[in-house]
UniProtKB/TrEMBL annotation:
InterPro entries: BUG (IPR005064), Bug_dom1 (IPR042100)
The organism of origin for this protein: Achromobacter aloeverae
Top-level taxon in the UniProt lineage: Bacteria
Record carries keyword Signal: yes
Family matches, as Pfam families: TctC
Signal sequence annotation: 1-25
The protein's name in its UniProt record: Tripartite tricarboxylate transporter substrate binding protein
Family: Belongs to the UPF0065 (bug) family.
Keywords (A to Z) from UniProt: Signal
Length: 327
C-alpha cells in the first residue's frame, strides 16, 4: 500500500479552511437572525419566541426577527428550517407537539427531531393540569380517580385536538389510573375548556396559565399536575405522582438549527438563550404564566427528546392515535 504524504500546498489549504471557519464563528452573528415559529401569531410558542428572541438579540448584538410559518400542525415551518443552510442565521423556535409528537403521528415520518436538526436549548416548559368540571362530584385527585374508575366508559374528556400533548397526557393518566373514558377533540383550547365548564365533557389536561383563572372563578376544579414537583404558581396542587399515579409529562419549547451547525456557533446561541432566560423580568413572566424556566443545554434537550419520543410513541401505538385529516 502506498501512502501519499500531503504536500505543503495541501497542508496550507487545509489550515486556511480551518482558519476561515474559526473566523466565521468569531464574527457570528454578522447580520440579523431569522427565528421561525411554525405556529400562528398569538399563541404561547409565538409569544415566548418573540420574548426570548428579543433578549437573544440583545445578547448577540444582532436583531432576532420572528417569522411565523404555520401550517400542517407545524410541519411547514419545521421543514423550512430543516432545509436551510446551517450557518446560524435561520433557527426554529418550536414545541414538542410539533418537533416530537408530530412526526410520530405521520407515516412516513417527515423528519427525525434530533438527527435532522441541531438541538440548541430548551428555554421553558410546563406540565399539564388536570381540570374537572364543577359538575363532577369529586374535589381531590384521588376522589376523581375512584369515581371515574367506578364508571368505566361513562366519563369523557376534552382536548385541543387529536394528538395534542393534552390529549396524550390525559391518555397517560387514564392508563396509569385505570380509567376508561371517551376522548372528545376540539379545535383549540377555548372550545375544549368551554365544554368542560358547561359539563358537556368531564375533564381535560390543560396549562396552568390558561385554566387557573377558571379555577379561581369556581368554574373548574384543578386537581393535579403531571409535573415532577409542585408548581410555584399553584403550590397547593399536588402532582399525580405524589397521589399514587406516576405520570410525568410536559409541554416544552425549544430552539433548533439545521443539521450541521458548527459547535462554536451553537455554543454562542446556547449562551445567549441562557442569558435571556435568566433575565429577572422574563423569569417573572414565565412564573406568572404557570411555566417553568429551565434553559436546558443542547445535550440535555437531546437526551430528553430521546426519552420522551419513546413514551409518546408507546401511547400513540397502544391507542392507535392518528393525526386528523393527515394535517
Amino acid at each position: 500500500m502506498i501512502f501519499k504524504i500531503p504536500t505543503r500546498r495541501a497542508l496550507l489549504a487545509a489550515a486556511a479552511l480551518l482558519m476561515a471557519g474559526a473566523a466565521v464563528a468569531d464574527e457570528y452573528p454578522a447580520k440579523p437572525i431569522r427565528l421561525v415559529v411554525p405556529f400562528p401569531p398569538g399563541g404561547p410558542t409565538d409569544t415566548y419566541g418573540r420574548l426570548v428572541g428579543k433578549l437573544m438579540g440583545d445578547a448577540l448584538g444582532q436583531p432576532v426577527i420572528v417569522e411565523n410559518r404555520n401550517g400542517a400542525t407545524g410541519l411547514i415551518g419545521t421543514n423550512m428550517v430543516k432545509s436551510a443552510a446551517p450557518d446560524g442565521y435561520t433557527l426554529l423556535y418550536t414545541s414538542n407537539s410539533a418537533q416530537v409528537i408530530g412526526p410520530l403521528l405521520r407515516t412516513p415520518r417527515p423528519f427525525d427531531p434530533v438527527a435532522d436538526f441541531t438541538p440548541i436549548a430548551e428555554p421553558l416548559r410546563y406540565s399539564l393540569y388536570l381540570l374537572v368540571s364543577s359538575k363532577v362530584p369529586a374535589n381531590t385527585f384521588k376522589e376523581f380517580v375512584a369515581l371515574a374508575r367506578s364508571k368505566p366508559g361513562k366519563f369523557s374528556y376534552a382536548s385541543v385536538g387529536t394528538g395534542s400533548v393534552g390529549h396524550l397526557a390525559c391518555e397517560l393518566m387514564n392508563g396509569a389510573a385505570g380509567i376508561e373514558a371517551l376522548h372528545v377533540p376540539y379545535k383549540g383550547a377555548g372550545p375544549a375548556q368551554v365544554s368542560v365548564v358547561a359539563g358537556d365533557t368531564d375533564y381535560l389536561c390543560d396549562s396552568v396559565g390558561n385554566s387557573q383563572p377558571m379555577v379561581l372563578a369556581g368554574k373548574l376544579k384543578g386537581l393535579a399536575l403531571t409535573a415532577e414537583s409542585r408548581s410555584a404558581s399553584i403550590p397547593d396542587i399536588p402532582t399525580m405522582t405524589e397521589e399514587g399515579v406516576p405520570v410525568v409529562a410536559y409541554v416544552w419549547q425549544g430552539v433548533f438549527a439545521p443539521k450541521g451547525l458548527p459547535d462554536d456557533i451553537r455554543a454562542k446561541l446556547e449562551a445567549a438563550i441562557a442569558k435571556a432566560i435568566n433575565t429577572p423580568e422574563l423569569r417573572e413572566r414565565i412564573r406568572n404564566d404557570g411555566y417553568e424556566a429551565v434553559a436546558q443545554s443542547h445535550a440535555q434537550l437531546t437526551k430528553d427528546i430521546t426519552a420522551e419520543s419513546a413514551m409518546w410513541e408507546k401511547i400513540i401505538q397502544t391507542k392507535g392515535i392518528k393525526v386528523e385529516n393527515g394535517g
